[in-house]
Amino acid sequence: MTLPRTTLTLHPEFRVGEIDRRLFGSFVEHLGRAVYTGIYEPGHATADDHGFRSDVADLTRELGVTIVRYPGGNFVSGYRWEDGVGPVSERKPYLDLAWRTVEPNLVGTDEFLQWAEREGITPMMAVNLGTRGVEAAAALVEYCNGEAGTRWADMRIANGRTEPYGVHLWCLGNEMDGPWQIGHKDADAYGRLAAEAGKAMKLVDPSISLIVCGSSSMEMDTFGSWERTVLSHSYDIVDHISMHAYYEELEGDRASFLASGTAMDRFIRRVAASADAVGAERRSDKTITMSFDEWNVWYRVSRFVGEAALPIQRDAPRIIEDVYSGLDAVVVGDLLVTLLNHADRIPVACLAQLVNVIAPIMTEPGGAAWRQPTFHPFATAARLARGTALDVRLETPPTTTAQHGEVPLVTAAATLDDDGALALFVTNRGAEPVEVDVDHLGLDIEFTGGWQMLADAIPAVEGPAHAAAVTEACWSEVTPPARAADTRTTIVLPPESWTAFAGTSSRA
Prior knowledge:
This is non-reducing end alpha-L-arabinofuranosidase. The protein is of the alpha/beta class. It has two domains: 5-12 and 390-507, Sandwich (Immunoglobulin-like); 15-389, TIM Barrel (Alpha-Beta Barrel), CATH 3.20.20. The protein has twelve helices and 26 strands. The protein has helices at residues 54-63, 109-119, 134-145, 151-158, 187-204, 225-234, 254-258, 260-281, 300-303, 326-340, 375-384, 464-474; strands at 5-10, 15-18, 25-27, 67-70, 94-96, 101-103, 122-127, 169-172, 209-212, 240-247, 289-297, 348-351, 361-363, 369-371, 388-390, 393-395, 398-401, 405-408, 410-416, 421-428, 434-440, 443-454, 475-478, 483-485, 488-493, 497-507. It has an eight-stranded parallel β-barrel with strand order 3-4-7-8-9-10-11-12, surrounded by six helices.
């Protein structure tokens, strides 16, 4: 049988840009069990002296997470951060309207930031621009980053933290274009508020970077016009614009689901074009980059009842705990390929979320923590992708999908570090094997390791046994390919697969 053939060309001078380590970020929101019985569970056998689960922390390090966004998400748009600091014994539970959950208020700003510090994770904080505004946002920056001698910095010191946290990256609200958001605003109102809040926050600490809310998805009716209007107010103040996107298999359409990376690519290109158009109109030399601070596979249409339909619940209810398959993991790998191929415009990205809520890590209260299938491609990419993202030149047959039209059958990303370490990530979206000729002109390459995720059709069930069964069936170490010629290496990709290769290189 003659296999479909793809040619992939690597050259050290074909470059996208440097990879920012913040590309491998995640997200912890006060939603379901992300915080309580997720990262935090006093009394658990692995809990540290602060009540945080060490087994989850160990898996987070293995996952390779570099930055974590907090405290939301929809949650932040009704959050009074002052209520979550100070002695825990004096804090009051309250009803969170975003997820209709009674928030116990045991974890707040200090607890999160100190957990991140202990784990070597960079924090990414969000301010409430839904029910609050300029004053509260500036006060939170002062609380986190201020020196002694001012009101909010002295409150932090009184709460037991002498040194400033030095939080650098700040989100100006969350999904403010969404009617589901508490305090939802139109683009003009939000753009003006974000600009004023950002101005005040930078007056407190000029060193911080700001992320303004972009569209909640490319499917929003206001997509494009939202970016243009918001940036027309905030372009000179902000540094990044946010992007959010979730993907799922609908009605058994595997081909379209496997091509989700093409939808993500189009979204990125359109947001970049919108931001650049505002910059051109302003005759600005500044480039706005994107923070893709929510992305993942989420069965939102087929499994989630919607925020408004949730009953009021207590005690860390199980909300949006999707169970993932090998197919989902292949798609996650392909989405990582897309993000790497836009490293020049996307310095920050967050897999949403870290634990239990559409997450690569799952836990049982009082019990085990385990890896979902989606854990493996993320951890592998975070470990291998370093240095410069190469501009991979790809000649591949197309495949046709119902949702996205013709899309590339094979996608690929590659990275090259200064010490010659090379990584190659390749997805076969088709139902048949594909032969790929890797032409490495200008590079003498030897592949030294390989890892592969295969799609599956195993029914999703809850618990570590399912995750272990999928991993056993779909995730494996593979033999790296040998060179077929001085400047060519040929690999065969199984159907519906994501493969990562590690190697060494030197200039030929």
